[in-house]
Amino acid sequence: MVDWSPETYGPRWKNVYDEVGWPRPDAAVEFLSARRGSGRCLELGIGTGRVAIPLVARGVPLDGLDASPEIVEVMRTKPGGEAIEVTIGDMADFKLERKYSLILLLLNSLYALQTQEDQIRCFESVAAHLEPGGLFVVETFMPDPTRFRFGGRAHVYEVGLDHVRIEADTFDRATQQILENHIEVREDGIKLYPAFLRYTWPSEMDLMARIAGLRLRERWGDWANVPFDASSENHIAVYEKPA
Ligand SMILES: C[S@@+](CC[C@H](N)C(=O)[O-])C[C@H]1O[C@@H](n2cnc3c(N)ncnc32)[C@H](O)[C@@H]1O
């Protein structure tokens, strides 16, 4: 087991999260708005509000949940981010007063849960908070174990005159865990940005959904409704709670 807790990510990433070149949220916002249903939306692992803020601006009533008050504070500094109601808690096991017609778990955040057991508990908590007919949208990268040789890898991804950025990973195919640390080296010091994760294949995710009483409604390779196939690097699954 690794030394990682639900609160670890936020304080380590809060100052640089919005500088990472994440994809623009426009296509995701379009996709999600079309599936909003008639009730409220909940984003698990809402982070700095990358998708949540534009969704609210589109008129989607939305609440958030995150383990890290520090990263939510970043969202609070943004226009529209200060008004979003956020519960601090663990997405593996949460109890909220409201029910939702749409629950979101975006940008690989399911993988932040380090064990299969926690990931199943997350699906069960989601199912308990969905209205009948409500949808759960999960976005994850497609695992590619061929990236790793001899149980790990190091990859230099940015070299400048006064800095170098390196990603160092270990990979355990028995537990499906990737322990990843982004290393920034400068003359005045080194900074570490860890992201420990447990990946799941779409088939395993479908079984977790089934255990929780949800069923697969749609599967896509991209927010722009690109069909999911063997070449997909991204994976978007839409699960439904039977009406
Ligand atoms: C990769 S960020 C994604 C943020 C946002 N959803 C986005 O799309 O930009 C993952 C987020 O999940 C949160 N998180 C990690 N583990 C969590 C847990 N067990 N329960 C709740 N939130 C968690 C982190 O604090 C962080 O804000």
Automatic annotation (TrEMBL):
UniProt xrefs under Gene3D superfamilies: 2.20.25.570, Vaccinia Virus protein VP39
Keywords on record: Methyltransferase, Transferase
Superkingdom of source: Bacteria
Gene Ontology biological-process annotations: methylation
Domain Methyltransferase: 42-134
InterPro entries linked to this entry: Methyltransf_25, SAM-dependent_MTases_sf
Membrane spanning stretches: none
Record's keyword annotation contains Methyltransferase: yes
Keyword Methyltransferase: yes
GO molecular function, one term: methyltransferase activity
Name by which UniProt lists this protein: Methyltransferase
